[in-house]
Design goal:
The complex is a heterodimer of chains A (about 190) and B (about 750).
Chain A lengths: L5 E5 L9 H6 L12 E4 L8 E4 L8 H4 L27 H5 L6 E2 L6 E2 L5 H4 L6 H5 L5 E5 H7 L3 E8 L2 E11 L19
Chain B lengths: L7 H8 L19 E6 L8 E7 L2 E7 L12 H5 L13 E4 L4 E4 L1 H19 L4 E5 L5 H15 L4 E3 L6 H11 L9 H4 L3 E5 L3 H4 L3 H10 L3 E5 L12 E3 L6 H14 L5 H7 E2 L1 H7 L5 H8 L3 H13 L3 E5 L1 H4 L4 H15 L7 E5 L18 E2 L3 E2 L3 H11 L13 H9 L5 E5 L3 H4 L3 H8 L4 E6 L11 E4 L8 E4 L4 E5 L12 H11 L12 H12 L11 H7 L2 E2 L26 E2 L18 E6 L15 H6 L5 E3 L1 H6 L7 E5 L4 E8 L7 E5 L28 E7 L7 H14 L7
Parallel strand pairs in B: 6-7, 6-16, 8-9, 8-12, 9-10, 11-22, 12-13, 16-17, 17-18, 23-27, 24-26
Antiparallel strand pairs in B: 1-2, 2-3, 4-5, 4-18, 14-15, 19-20, 20-21, 23-28, 25-26, 25-28
Helix pairs in contact in B: 4-20, 4-21, 5-15, 9-12, 9-13, 9-15, 12-13, 17-19
The chains are: A alpha+beta (about 190), B alpha/beta (about 750).
Chain lengths: ~190, ~750
């Protein structure tokens, strides 16, 4: 069991795009060589902003709702697990239905894999691998009550997706509106260009 | 003569770079680890703690080392994938001798004989100093110390220098002038306590990624962040104040700040009076540096300069960090001192949350620059020209003053003497000058003139391809020892596995060569890294970098020991300058006047664009190691040129187009990366590659007069759009390799 007290917080403002999370995820014993994390450059021509995506661990997982084989299970601690190998038919419904674009049906593997919050680690009191290595702690695994005091950004765990309100175990941190965001270097200079 | 064997394709097929994509045995083999070895990452000066998983004498993976206090388990992607350098198909496991066709394996004994004969032939004909040695500070303290002793007492040459010459020397010289000591003033814990953090010329997110979290933790408390850099780096993106100044104008900005601190009464007069010298002279040098003048030189708005001075001046606590951006200049030392001046003027140093540091770049950039690895230095950061210092070292080494050579030439000057034909022989290790020195066409010409060249390397680097003999050496994880981190914390490097085949640790090679050169009496007692460390302790004792009280056991007990640590009962010194006491004989710090002067090369009608170079997070220095690790190459397979959309548009360049970048030294053709995150008058190229992809084809051999660091960060260039067929075949090959790796059946790492 993963302690309910511990939340996973994704803070894109802090992300430096180093892909340490992507690299470390693939080292996991349960899915060796496969990274379950997506890290995207939002628009490199405009900004260095990058966005890490890990499974949000929905309270009522859309992937599980759409699974015809009942292969996707959520444990009581709120962790949504990768598909169960004997049941998964690799139909890809989960891939298409996930509002966050997380599950992957990998060619050749014929099974849906996704982030399970490093259950082998988090269920024994360790942090997930990505949140352990993340140099800027854009991926943070910490007691929920500490995070509010710790960070200027605010955790968001409800997402309106079309008509569906999705509540999640993991949180995306919404930046403090006071924090500036610099994009175009030319805009920081006095005319001249 | 040291020409590269002509068959480049055969050379690449044999020695790489190939990509190592998966752990030994592949991803499906997951051998139970025999042991977890708690050591440190080899890839930068932060020296993050990491546990290496070992199975069957191979490093097969890693575990975060969450108890190590500096990084608490955090690692950048280089750290995560560093284990893939071990069981690499390109590893050198035999000595090599150069033939007309390529390299042939040599038996160890034959390689040593050929090496000794080569050294002796050069020295017999041209004199001792005609044989030079270039070394590097990814080596442990033990090896760095031994390199210094080996050059002076085994080779008897004064011409030893190191690649810290391209890294830490401007900061070191500036720190010695101001403080009388060369070390980060504080442990990084003080960053978290600061109210304002000033970062000049440091791409922290990519070159010291873990430091990002220290800065953010201060910001979580409400700290303000000022970032000075021609590019909006990932850290600058969210800074309270981003100052994208013109390359090479750093001291103009900091002089302008000093001017305003004085004008607005924000100088801590009591601190300046009680703890420093030279304030008035420094202020006089900044007298005309009004915000308007500063704006005209730096290209920054007056309001931004005033805001920076206000934020810095009014802070209660602060931390200033800088790195190669300001140091890689022909006035690198002046830039450093101008930064120190605005720290000293506020008196915010030597207290909790009040600090200053350069961010050391190389793995052992701190420790490797302290123990006699430099052309003018002896262990303990002693001066090779100071008779007392020489006496101490002669006593420890058991040699006479006549046996101890004097001051030699710096790294770039050694290369120039080789080019001029005055230095004829070279021993090179842990240094890839053909990629990392400026003006690499010139460097190549120099290497081709060597009469005898021996290289110690674990992969056949671009430079080692010129060697007559290559001795296979050991990786970081194949030896015991210590390094000293950017914080000044001495940490333990642990051996995880044995070197493969005939590969040997550098210290064993030094000891054997010394013996064969008839100088064994100075080296025979070095039977282990710890034996070398014991002598290093005595040699450093009484110097500023005093390791006298540091033992391996104490490092492990305390998770590192901050020097100075003069006695075994001394806990070490995480924070320097407490109570405003500095290392100069009078205990006071010195302001150094830093009147602004332009870079050696400035833009003009022929070369109208500023060019600056630097690193990316996926590669380490000249790339000898990281260009062989699949995941890292996939993220950044080859260099490119960053161009602002306004400049690109004016020249008809679109993202991805081939662009010719030309300076007075040469031309590169690279793909354009059109990004708004750089000044519109400046372009940027990462420097981790050699040959037709080497940014240092373009850079100049202009040196700082004090530190002798080259001006990598400022050149003048011109840009010309060209056709894609002009992109170098090497670049296309790298692109193909990275793409092919990504298409491997689902296992992309």
């Amino acid at each position: 069991m993963v302690s309910e007290e511990y939340g996973f917080f994704i803070d894109p403002q802090r992300c430096i795009g180093c892909r340490s999370c992507v690299a470390a995820c693939a080292e996991c014993g349960t899915h060796r060589g496969h990274s379950m994390i997506h890290l995207d450059e939002l628009d490199r021509s405009a900004s260095t902003q990058t966005g890490p995506t890990v499974c949000m661990h929905c309270e009522d997982p859309v992937c599980a709702m759409s699974c015809p084989a009942d292969a996707i299970k959520r444990t009581e601690d709120g962790v949504v697990h990768a598909s169960q190998k004997p049941r998964c038919v690799a139909c890809g419904n989960c891939e298409m239905s996930c509002p966050f674009g997380v599950p992957l049906v990998l060619p050749g593997l014929e099974q849906m894999l996704k982030c399970d919050l490093c259950y082998d680690r988090s269920s024994v009191g360790l942090k997930p691998m990505c949140a352990t290595v993340c140099p800027s702690q854009a991926l943070l695994f910490a007691p929920r009550h500490e995070v509010a005091a710790m960070r200027g950004s605010r955790p968001l765990r409800e997402f309106q997706v079309g008509e569906l309100l999705v509540r999640t175990r993991n949180a995306v941190m919404v930046p403090d509106p006071e924090t500036p965001l610099h994009l175009d270097a030319a805009l920081l200079l006095d005319g001249g260009f | 003569m040291a020409h590269v064997p002509t068959n480049a394709a055969a050379l690449r097929a044999q020695f790489g770079p190939h990509l190592n994509l998966a752990p030994p045995g592949g991803w499906d083999a997951e051998p139970a680890p025999d042991k977890l070895v708690s050591t440190h990452c080899c890839f930068c000066g932060q020296q993050c703690g990491i546990k290496l998983k070992v199975a069957g004498n191979k490093v097969v993976g890693f575990e975060p080392w969450e108890d190590f206090p500096f990084n608490k388990g955090k690692l950048c992607p280089k750290g995560v994938k560093r284990y893939l350098q071990g069981s690499h198909p390109d590893r050198l496991t035999q000595a090599l001798g150069r033939t007309d066709a390529g390299f042939e394996p040599l038996a160890w004994d034959a390689a040593m004989e050929r090496t000794v004969a080569g050294i002796q032939a050069v020295q017999a004909t041209y004199g001792k100093d005609a044989f030079a040695m270039l070394s590097g500070v990814s080596l442990t303290n033990e090896k760095s110390y031994l390199a210094g002793k080996f050059a002076r007492l085994a080779l008897g040459t004064r011409n030893l220098d190191y690649n810290g010459r391209l890294c830490m020397v401007s900061a070191g010289a500036g720190n010695k002038k101001a403080f009388g000591v060369d070390r980060a003033a504080n442990a990084w814990a003080d960053i978290e306590l600061a109210d304002v953090i000033w970062v000049s010329g440091a791409n922290v997110a990519e070159c010291a990624p873990i430091t990002t979290d220290y800065i953010w933790r201060a910001r979580d408390r409400g700290a303000k962040l000022i970032v000075v850099d021609p590019r909006i780096t990932p850290l600058a993106r969210t800074a309270d104040l981003a100052l994208p100044l013109k390359p090479g104008t750093d001291a103009a900005l900091t002089n302008g700040i000093l001017h305003l601190l004085d004008k607005w009464g924000l100088v801590d007069r009591d601190f300046v009076r009680d703890h420093t010298n030279g304030f008035e002279a420094a202020l006089e040098a900044a007298r005309d540096c009004t915000p308007e003048w500063t704006a005209s030189v730096t290209g920054l708005p007056v309001a931004a300069i005033e805001r920076a001075a206000r934020m810095w001046g009014e802070a209660r606590t602060s931390f200033l960090l800088h790195a190669r951006g300001i140091e890689h200049q022909s006035k690198g030392v002046e830039n450093v001192n101008s930064c120190i001046n605005i720290v000293l003027a506020t008196g915010r140093i030597g207290r909790p949350g009040c600090g200053y540091a350069t961010i050391t770049g190389q793995g052992n950039g701190q420790g490797g620059r302290e123990h006699g690895h430099k052309c003018d230095q002896l262990p303990g950061n002693r001066d090779i020209e100071n008779p007392e210092h020489r006496r101490h070292i002669c006593d420890v080494w058991g040699c006479t003053d006549e046996e101890l050579p004097g001051k030699g030439l710096s790294a770039q000057e050694i290369m120039e003497e080789i080019h001029e034909g005055r230095i004829k022989g070279l021993l090179c290790l842990c240094f890839n000058p053909l990629v990392s020195l400026p003006d690499s066409t010139y460097t190549r010409e120099a290497l081709e003139k060597l009469e005898f060249f021996v290289s110690l390397d674990f992969f056949l680097s671009e430079t080692a391809q010129h060697a007559d003999v290559v001795l296979p050496s050991a990786l970081h994880e194949e030896d015991e020892g210590t390094t000293t981190t950017a914080e000044g914390r001495v940490v333990r490097i642990r051996k995880a596995v044995d070197p493969p085949g005939d590969a040997r640790t550098d210290w064993e090679i030094f000891v054997e060569l010394a013996r064969r050169l008839g100088r064994g009496r100075f080296f025979d007692h070095f039977t282990s890294p710890e034996a070398i460390f014991q002598e290093l302790r005595r040699a450093s004792s009484g110097g500023t970098a005093d390791y006298g009280g540091i033992t391996y056991a104490k490092i492990e007990r305390q998770m590192g020991v901050f020097w100075p640590c003069p006695t075994e009962d001394h806990p070490g010194t995480p924070r320097l300058f407490e109570g405003g006491t500095f290392f100069h004989p009078d205990g006071r710090a010195k302001f150094i006047p830093t009147p602004y002067r332009p870079p050696m090369e400035v833009v003009d009608a022929d070369y109208p664009v500023w060019l600056t170079t630097g690193r990316v997070v996926f590669h380490y220095l000249s790339g000898t190691q990281t260009r062989r690790i699949g995941f890292l190459v996939q993220q950044c397979p080859h260099p490119y040129v960053e161009i602002h959309p306004r400049m690109a548009e004016a020249r008809g360049i679109k993202d991805g187009d081939a662009v010719e970048v030309t300076t007075r030294r040469g031309t590169l053709v690279l793909p354009a990366k059109v990004v708004a995150t750089i000044r519109p008058d400046t372009v940027f190229i990462p420097y981790h590659w050699g040959g037709d992809l080497g940014a240092n084809r373009l850079t100049a051999r202009h040196l700082d007069p004090v530190s002798r660091i080259p001006e990598f960060k400022v050149s003048a260039c011109r840009l010309t759009p060209t056709t894609p067929d002009r992109l170098p075949p090497e670049l296309l090959e790298l692109r193909r390799m990275a793409a092919a790796a990504a298409l491997l059946p689902e296992r992309v790492m």
